[in-house]
Structures are given as C-alpha cells and as structure tokens.
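Entry:
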Amino acid sequence: MAQQGQRLYLACHFDRYHNKRTLAIHRIENTEILTRTFDYPENCNLKNTMQMTVWVW
C-alpha cells in the first residue's frame, strides 16, 4: 500500500495479466475475503512499482 496525499493505493497483480496494477482504495466498491495465499515476489520493489503506475496518469 502507498499513500499520495490523502489517498491510499494498493499495488497488486491480477491473474491473467502480466503487468502490475495499482488500485485507488477509495474507488473499491466491493471486496471478498479469500483463504488463498500467495508467494511474495522476490523482485518486488514498491517504490519502482508506484513510480511506473500511480504517478503516471
């Protein structure tokens, strides 16, 4: 998760897509709690991810 001003963003990856995404938390209308787990990517760099996604509109 990252913050820009008062807004919070979630860095994520969707199944069937190869690029990283960011979601503006205030725009999420519905959620579902799952019991699935995931492996945290070794090469994950939140700073780089946020520079390449959220800040480029």
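Strands lie at 2-4, 7-12, 21-24.
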